[in-house]
Amino acid sequence: MRIFLQFLRTIRPYLRYFFAVNPGGATYGTMTGLLVLCGALFVFSFVIRFWRRRITNAVTKKLSRSWSSTAFWFAIIGFLFIVCRVEGIQFLAMRFFWVLWGLGAALYLFFQVQQFRARHYRVLPKEHSHDPRERYLPKKRAH
User: How confident is the model at residue 102 (pLDDT cuts 50, 70, 90)?
Assistant: First the structure.
């Protein structure tokens, strides 16, 4: 029991840092990196949507089906967290939500790369082999 209480005392500053209801001290200037990241995700979602229209490989098109909407929603949620942090909306300003957001993005990216590696293939054009014996073999009968 004593060890557990000591453990709680050591992690208390970290828990207070991540779960602070209103961390404060944030401006749109200090959140520039996150604003750029969320803006890039927002633009990337539309780029992917237009890119998918031009894809001819059906397998790639099927595997990239959710990329656009996922990037869009991660961007919107990121913008929401930034506004809540800067404007001081208490519950949604917690840093812990950014940890969840990052873990969600990392897990999504990991599983998408895994799916792409496992299921992606290219449809190769068929090659017709020329067998010199074909001239001498009997032709198939048409019924």
Answer: very high
Dist CA 81 CA 100 (whole Å): 11
Closest of 118, 125, 143 to residue 59, by C-alpha: 118
pLDDT (tens digit, 9 = 90+) per residue, 17-63?
888 877 878 888 989 999 999 999 999 999 999 999 999 888 889 99
User: Is 132 inside a domain boundary?
Assistant: no
Residue 86: alpha-carbon gap to chain centroid: 25
pTM: 0.76
**How is 31-93 classified by DSSP, letter by letter?**
THHHHHHHHHHHHHHHHHHHHHHH---HHHHHHTTTHHHHHHHHHHHHHHHHHHHHHT-TGGG
Structural domain for 107, as ranges: 24-120
What is the C-alpha to C-alpha distance for residues 70 and 6, in angstroms, rounded to an integer?
42
- Is residue 64 in a domain? yes
pLDDT at 122: 72
Give the whole-angstrom CA distance, residue 26 versus residue 94. 12
